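Instructor's aside before we start: the two examples that follow are unrelated to each other. I chose them only because their records fit on one page, so don't look for a connection. First example below.
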Amino acid sequence: MKRGEAKQTKDDDNDNVVQLQSDMQALQSDIGRIGRRLNIIANRAVQSSRENLSERATATRETVAANVAAGQEKLGVAADNGRKYATKQTNNLRKQVKSRPIASCAIALGAGVVVGSMLRNRKSAK
């Protein structure tokens, strides 16, 4: 190789190295920008997910509260109906006792004997 050609090759190599360094710096800059953009996108996705989750939690909380209120209302109605039924049956029983006091006493006595007998048998079985 001639001296001029060797110098030209060395200069070309130096130019290539300088260009490669410049390209690497540009690539590092591009990677930095990509990282920052990915960070922004990820933060937005996280924020959106938080908002979505918060909205769903609020909706679920409201649904549960509405269902509890409806259940309480139904329970209140059932309790009122139970009280009315018990009062009606108590009044009917009072009327029967007043209209037939001797028969009522005999039935109560018979029921007491049966229950007492069952309890006595139960104690002796143990």
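Example two begins here.
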Amino acid sequence: MSKERVKLAVVGLVLFVVLTLAALALFSAGPGLVQVQPQGAATTFTDLAITNNASVGGDLTVTGGATAASFTGDVTGDLTGDVTGDLTGDVAGDLTGALVLGADDFVTLTPGTSITVTNGAAFTPTATYQPLVAAAEVTPTITAGATAGRLVALTNTGTDVINLADSGTLKLSAAAALGQYDVLVLVSDGTNWIEISRSDN
């Protein structure tokens, strides 16, 4: 064998080893587990199918929607399908499908930033669990036009009474006077906020 062919063979072997090690660094598989480890820039997959569990070390961005059993990490796209395993992390897009909770599972609502409401002024909830406070007894209004089906639990965490009138796009069983730790739960139909329940605590 000529020296040139030997050199080419050695170079080919080195490239094979380097590519193999790079592939192992990207994918490390154990029994029933696939791990994707970001290597600097984002890794993009097209039509990626995972039949076992997947561990995502960083954020998971889904641009076309995804169907899966469980996710660990943040989902910043849409998650479409039934989630019967654990969903650990934030879903910034839509979760479409059935979320099945086991006997020891909880739904944890991250509180939105507390809103200081003022008399006659509209406020916009930023989370399902929405703390409210006021500097004195006030009667604010709530911004209309939220996404249909959106739930909000308005909770007065301050000591001053927050009044909400049964008028306009706020559809209540009666006017609400929320004292400290009182809760008013509403659902939006796309235009109106409709009362589901209230608790005088």
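The two ends are 89 Å apart (CA to CA).
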